[in-house]
Amino acid sequence: MASKSPLQQWVADVWATTLKISEPELDDDFYALGGTSLAAVRIVFVVRDRLGVELPLRALLDSADLAAFCAEIDRRAEPGAALLERLA
């Protein structure tokens, strides 16, 4: 089990809360955990609202797992964005 970065831990917590599951691992698939389109909308809204990252719904739906979704968030964050400060 790989340790999570602060962003990955925060996203795992959001997934766990939204999907009402125990904490997912980095290689866990959103759909395999019971993810639905409504849950995806909620998760993307929370990411946009809390982190200020403009993220299309497709970014979650196309991600293979939690790690890939976090990488997409990181990729779409504005250069120099203080994501970690927004997680506090």
Q: Structural class per helix/strand content?
A: mainly alpha
Q: How many helices does DSSP assign?
A: 5
Shape call: globular
Helix and strand sequence: HHHHH
Largest sheet: none
What do we call the CATH topology? Non-ribosomal Peptide Synthetase Peptidyl Carrier Protein, Chain A
CATH C-level class: Mainly Alpha
As a whole number of angstroms, the C-alpha radius of gyration is: 12 Å
The percentage of residues in β strands lies in under 5%
Pfam families: PP-binding
Domain Carrier: 2-77
InterPro entries: ACP-like_sf, PKS_PP-bd, PP-bd_ACP
Protein name: Phosphopantetheine-binding protein
Question: How are the SSEs ordered, and which strands pair?
Answer:
Blueprint: H1 6-19, H2 37-51, H3 57-61, H4 66-76, H5 83-87
Helix pairs in contact: 1-2
Describe this protein's structure.
By secondary structure, this protein is mainly α. The protein has one domain (6-78): ACP-like (Non-ribosomal Peptide Synthetase Peptidyl Carrier Protein, Chain A, Orthogonal Bundle). 57% of the residues lie in helices and 0% in strands. α1 packs across α2. It comes from Actinomadura gamaensis. Residues 2-77 form the Carrier domain. InterPro entries: ACP-like_sf, PKS_PP-bd, PP-bd_ACP.
